[in-house]
Amino acid sequence: MAIPRHTLPLLLYPFLLLIFSPQSFQQNQNIDPSDLEALLSIKNTLTELSPTSPFFSTWNLTAPDPCSSFSGVTCSLHRVTILSLGIYSFKLAGSLPTSISALTELTQLILSPGIVTGSIPPQLGQLTKLRVISLPNNRLTGTIPTSFSSLINLHTLDLSHNQLAGSIPPSLTELPNLKVLILASNSLTGYLPENVSAPLLHLDLKNNQLEGPLPTSMPSSLRYLSLSQNRMWGPLTNGFESLSELVFLDLSMNQLSGPIPAQLFFRPTLSSLFLQRNNLTGGLPRMANNKESSSYGPGSIVDLSHNFLSGELSTVFDGVESLFLNNNRLIGRVPEEYVKSVCSGSTRTLYLQQNYFTGISLEMGMVLPDSASLCLAYNCMVPPASMMTCPDSAGERLSRPVAQCSVFNRGSDKG
């Protein structure tokens, strides 16, 4: 018996439904079905801020191969291994869904700067293959999940420039493979973890509300350390003796006190030292019969300004490219080596203003390089104004009142 033509679609409907059902569609994709479901959930919780060229425009069910066509998605053996949300400067809003935890083969989670809000899903701690978590420059709130202590393969964690609060989980600095930890510019509070045993190369915690003393020991592998703009107090501990690889150290704008450890001035690797705006006291070390050599040379910068350093200036900073010793209590004559260094161009910035120096070897007719910035204002001498390039904060007065100078330079060379 012939089947009426108008009944064919009805008879074929169950067969077509079977072919094009979501389950069969996913099976035809070159991606694990659970990963595809997680990606579509992520798409539903995030919104593009650039409608003219939306990031998620390639994330659709008609894509023959999501692994190769979805922007920011990289796969291996049909599983998502790298997820870069908002790459190529696409800004996203919304929140991070817990469904990311379904991507169990994920090794890298990267979120471009945007206005993503909400907390960091603690379920990320289940993704034990993660090596990189980078979520900077958004508006994430809440605390750093303690579940991150399970991420034994984590190499890089960057949560900087968000609105995270609470303390740093102690287990975070004990991860066995963590090399880069960047938590700068949040609202983190509390003391630093006592045990920093992770093999860190880069530790950046600046611009938070951390307090307390510095750790007594830190990993010898550290090359970059910044704790500036916090509420750290106490002395600069001897923990720096073990930091033989340190290149960059910034402890500025805290409440640190006491003397500066001499070993910081003789590190062969250290080229950037920022200790300004603390309560540091004591003098500067002297070179020991030319047997020691300063660690600073071309490209180096040292800023010890706005402290309470006293005594005479040694030649330990000779050759530093940018040297800021202003706003201290240094006395005596400025060593001739610094003048030669400025004249030769090896030192480009030398700020010595607002101290109690009594003299400097600047001869009449001496010409400084155009690139040089020299400031000697408000000391116990009358330097030639024509040779100085001072910031506005140095003030207009060239010399201190005589009464102040007699107190601080009693017994020193008045030259």
From TrEMBL:
Subcellular compartments: Membrane
Lineage top rank: taxon: Eukaryota
Signal peptide from the UniProt entry: 1-26
Keywords, sorted A to Z: Glycoprotein, Leucine-rich repeat, Membrane, Repeat, Signal, Transmembrane, Transmembrane helix
Stretches assigned to coiled coil: none
Matching PROSITE patterns: LRR (PS51450)
UniProt domain Leucine-rich repeat-containing N-terminal plant-type: residue ranges: 33-76
Family annotation (Pfam families): LRR_1, LRR_8, LRRNT_2
UniProt membrane topology term: Single-pass type I membrane protein
Family annotation (InterPro entries): Leu-rich_rpt, Leu-rich_rpt_typical-subtyp, LRR_dom_sf, LRR_N_plant-typ, RLP29
Keyword Transmembrane on entry: yes
GO CC annotation terms, alphabetical: membrane
Family per similarity comment: Belongs to the RLP family.
Protein name: Leucine-rich repeat-containing N-terminal plant-type domain-containing protein
